[in-house]
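Objective 1.3, modelling of assemblies. Example input:
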Amino acid sequence: MVRKVKGAMNEISLMPEEQYQRLQQRNAADVKELWDLLDAVKDPEVPVLSIWDLGILRDIERVGDTVVVTITPTYSGCPAMDNISTDVTKALNDAGYTDVKVKTSLSPAWSSEWMSADGRKKLRNYGIAPPEDAPLDEDGLTPDAHALCPHCGSENTRRVSEFGSTACKALFQCDDCSEPFDYFKKI
Amino acid sequence: MSDQIKDAIQEYATRLGDDSVVLGHRISEWVSYGPFLEEDIAYGNVSLDYIGRARMFYTYAAELANDGRDEDDFAYMRNDREYRNLLLMEMPKGDFAYSQVRQLFADVYYTLLLPELLQSKDETLSAIAAKAIKETKYHLRRSRDWVLRLGDGTEESHKRTQKAVDQLWGYTHELFDMDDTEQLLADEGIGVDVSKLRDAWLKMVSDILTEATLTVPEDSWAVRGGRTGYHTENLGHMLTEMQIVHRSHPGCKW
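Predicted structure (tokens):
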């Protein structure tokens, strides 16, 4: 959970454990330049988010002359995975790494907790409410109301559909500014 | 791992893949026919989850088979007699009530089965279960809501929903059957002993049907055969449509 401490000062976001671990992994990697390079690969469905921001870039290794990149799908049937593999290979090829292998790893299962703090901000600015902008219901699922509207900030909103334009999103509507918006589901 | 266990896991992964792809395809038949746009999109999403799940199971089965086939060969190059899915999954889409009742039966089943599969000693099966569990929570909430709304709705929707429950009930017994392959894997802590899930399934389904003012049918008939490749006439027609493009252009990539 991202907890926000509200006070007279600016809001302070505490970094969830999962994100901290990811950041440590990235900073410790001996192929740091490759992580930086792959920041250019965006999710085709949410083009403001890089695959790092979204948390689907799991690992980068050099095995001999081969660069092995491990990615993980957000949802089982995510149709963007093939595109992302191609984009990763292309980005590395363009930078002179000719021997690239992209592996898909299922375990541990992707969690929306892995999304970077920066990614969450970008998502909100793009008009999609990030997972922490809604109070979850008792089952830990998307609630039927009160996701914060990314356009006007109101919580006077309601869920229109549990399943939005992609598997990872639900559709909401704001009853103050009347704009519809996507909410990135917490899983 | 002994060859016997390896073959059993390959068969098991294929069965679970077959269940998922057949149900996923059936659900996809609603795309562009949903009662309203959001529901149409919801059905498309659920279908995608199942087809993605099938892909993961088939990829694993192909890896174990190690005979040059990939996941597409498993989905598109096998005939109905080679399919091992549960009959419930292949029943036609019917009307909206029929599809939602089938969905409820399947969603409750997976709600019970997946946490067990998560405990599997087989890391891949466990990893697939971990992904699918999260999705199934959303699926069940939706099918449950629909069955409540339709059962406790108008006279017409109640009538159709009850009819669907009665027509599908006899296909649910097979969900809890075990055979030698599945027993072997259950004993090894790899597969799920589905025979132990029936009571919990019945309780959850009965509670929802009762709340929806529907009657839980008596167990008066049962149809079985999916796990041994004996299917209803519906599967062949469905596979014909599902496989035509792949079989017309073998090996085609895009």
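Chain B has a mean pLDDT of 96.
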